[in-house]
Specification:
The protein is an alpha/beta fold. It has helices at 45-52, 75-82, 100-106, 116-129, 145-157, 175-192, and strands at residues 3-12, 19-29, 34-38, 60-65, 68-69, 85-88, 163-167, 195-199, 211-216, 219-223. The relative contact order is 0.20. The structure holds adenosine-5'-diphosphate and magnesium ion (MG).
Length: 224
């Protein structure tokens, strides 16, 4: 089921210090679609993605994910919908005390199908997809920033989410790693029919998307 955003408006702060950051954003993303969101720094990309990801409550407009209206949800409902979303942020928050395998597998814990026997092979396959086969027993601290970012991508994708939200996922990656990461997300969208939304400035990866949307001062328009 698609992601529908209708007339989403968002303001930080109150009174004279308030600042309207999203000014009536509307778009729809269909199953299997990869959307790239570009736009200058401060234009509202991250704010929009955190609202769609059920990480930030909002008051004006409508966001519907796979048939669920985010506005009607309580804390428990938001938690449930977040379980179906894979997040990739600039800051990856890997756990230093866990191995690479364990970091990726942690994302599977709590899923109904989670099991000792199947979690490791799933983690292994996803690490291979991002070019890190054979690195599972190491620790994040022994990896480069780009490798750590790829582990974070594997962690987000391994649970096979319905929606993937990635905020500047290739910012710290070289060209080859950036393509691997984008290809892994593209692949999942095509195979599983999930929706992928990626905020990025990285022109090298634009061609992987189905559509590009451009954010300008809180307004979103389609490019090309
Ligand atoms: N927590 C916050 N409180 C107040 N203003 C914020 C907050 N987060 C972001 N902003 C402001 O909202 C605007 C949009 O930010 P953001 O969504 O991060 O844009 P982008 O991701 O496109 O760079 C910026 O002007 C930023 O300073
Ligand atoms: Mg941002």
């Amino acid at each position: 089921m698609p992601v529908i955003v209708d007339n989403l408006t968002y303001t930080y702060g109150k009174g004279t210090l308030s600042r309207q950051v999203l000014k009536g954003v509307s778009f729809q993303a269909n199953d299997g679609e990869v959307l790239i969101i570009t736009g200058p720094s401060g234009s509202g990309k991250t704010t929009m993605l955190t609202i769609i990801g059920a990480l930030r409550p909002f008051a004006q407009g409508r966001v519907e994910i796979h048939g669920v209206d985010l506005k009607g949800l309580d804390t428990r409902g938001l938690l449930d919908i977040r379980k179906r979303i894979g997040f990739v942020f600039q800051k990856h928050n890997l756990l230093k005390s866990l191995t690479v395998y364990e970091n990726v597998e942690a994302s599977l814990h709590g899923l109904p199908e989670s099991s000792e026997e199947t979690n490791r092979p799933r983690a292994h396959a996803m690490l291979r997809a991002v070019g890190l086969e054979g690195r599972g027993h190491g620790y994040p601290d022994a990896m480069s920033g780009g490798e750590q970012q790829r582990v974070a991508v594997a962690r987000a994708l391994v649970r096979l989410p319905d929606l993937i939200i990635a905020d500047e996922p290739t910012a710290s990656l070289d060209a080859a790693s950036g393509r691997l990461v984008m290809a892994a997300m593209r692949d999942l969208a095509t195979k599983l029919g999930c929706v992928v939304m990626i905020a990025t400035h990285d022109e090298r990866v634009f061609d992987i998307a189905d559509r590009r949307l451009h954010m300008n001062d809180g307004r979103l328009e389609q490019v090309g």
